[in-house]
Design brief:
about 15% strand; Rossmann fold; seven-stranded mixed sheet; GT-like_domain_containing_1; about 375 residues; tRNA-queuosine alpha-mannosyltransferase; QTMAN_N; tRNA-queuosine(34) beta-mannosyltransferase activity
Length: about 375
């Protein structure tokens, strides 16, 4: 059931999130807190984070009956994520067309990896393109997200058999920009430094195909076959469709004795504690446009090891990146043999976390509202 949170009977901003979970939920909550502190009136309309594909196809229809009583004045602003087909919603609620409309892209479907070999369903990509055309401003959470979206528009348009629209990329590019995800970094608690004996590896991603958990666990198996000593914390949120590899690893695998934690951690304090007690955070993602969990892990003291692709080169120094499985295994073996080296390399790592902090970005988001 859709959830509607009212802040005053007359509001200035309506925030619509059809997939209210994970980083999408975190963003909405952080943005709403920013509006609250600024004294801006707002209204939040959400749907639970279930069945992403159905949300991407049907959320405008699902939300229509839930927001019949919601009014938005011409000076108001409609803010939504790209999961919503904005063009459809405006067709159902033409009165929303008079206000300013901003869409935020956490990810884009134009380069999404396909799980099964089949003819690509381009409807999700077309929905995102029409959403951009229906909006006044398009925000992406990274330059990689923005560029990969724009560069693949023509490829999608060419799949249309005839009467292809022209200048779509140019129109969208002119009203697009990058606004990094506002990360609420935790307050760091001073700890007594002790020399690590066993390397603690953390995998902090949501349990989905595009994060390539199979690759991660295969790398861990290679480390064990090489008689490396290490421990693993598998964190991250779970949604409807969980890859089978997680149950296989937990119940029947040679890695069972290596897990110090396996599963979602509800408490943020407990989650950050696990990150602070870990030495290396690993990503094997096929699909990443920002990566809140890896930034949080790095902020909490983990050395990040990430593929040399996707958004990662935009955020992390080259020394954190690997080009293939062999290179990742080589780096991890070196840290297993000397965990202190991982600690030292993390201490020497330079990342400007302020660029991504909610506190630093709050004023920039408010400026957008007043444009």
């Amino acid at each position: 059931m859709a959830a509607i949170q009212d802040r005053e009977s007359e509001f200035q901003v309506i925030i619509i999130e059809p997939f209210y979970g994970g980083s999408h939920k975190t963003f909405v909550d952080t943005f709403a807190c920013n509006l609250e502190e600024n004294g801006t009136k707002y209204n939040i309309v959400t749907l639970p984070a279930k069945k992403w594909h159905w949300r991407a196809r049907c959320s405008a229809l699902q939300l229509y009956s839930k927001i019949e009583h919601v009014e938005l004045k011409s000076k108001g602003l409609l803010w939504c994520s790209s999961v919503l087909n904005l063009a459809e919603l405006l067709g159902l609620r033409p009165d929303f067309g008079k206000c300013r409309k901003i869409v935020y892209f956490h990810e884009n479907q134009l380069i999404y990896p396909i799980q099964q070999i089949k003819k690509r369903d381009i409807q999700y990509a077309l929905n995102e393109i029409t959403t951009c055309l229906a909006s006044d401003l398009v925000l992406f959470n990274s330059e990689f997200n923005r560029t990969s979206f724009l560069d693949n528009i023509s490829k999608i348009i060419k799949m249309i058999p005839d009467n292809r629209p022209k200048n779509v990329r140019d129109i969208i590019e002119m009203k697009s920009r990058v606004m990094y995800f506002p990360v609420m970094f935790p307050k760091l608690v001073p700890t007594t430094a002790t020399k690590p004996v066993v390397l603690q590896i953390v995998w902090p991603h949501r349990w989905e195909f595009d994060k390539d958990p199979n690759e991660f666990f295969e790398v861990m198996m290679e480390l064990k076959k090489g008689n490396m000593d290490f421990r693993i914390s598998v964190l991250g949120e779970q949604f409807t469709d969980v890859p089978q590899v997680f149950e296989q690893m937990k119940s029947d695998s040679d890695l069972k004795d290596r897990f110090t934690h396996f599963g979602y951690v509800e408490s943020k304090d407990d989650y950050y504690k696990i990150l602070r007690n870990s030495h290396v955070a690993v990503s094997t993602a096929k699909h990443e446009f920002f990566g809140v969990s890896m930034l949080e892990a790095t902020y909490c003291g983990c050395l990040p090891l990430l593929p040399n692709r996707l958004v990662y080169p935009e955020i992390y120094p080259g020394g954190c990146l690997y080009n293939d499985r062999k290179e990742l295994i080589g780096k991890l073996k070196a840290y297993c043999e000397c965990p202190q080296k991982a600690v030292d390399d993390r201490q020497n790592l330079c990342i400007d976390f302020e660029k991504y902090s909610a506190e630093a970005l709050s004023s920039k988001y408010l400026e957008i509202l007043n444009e």
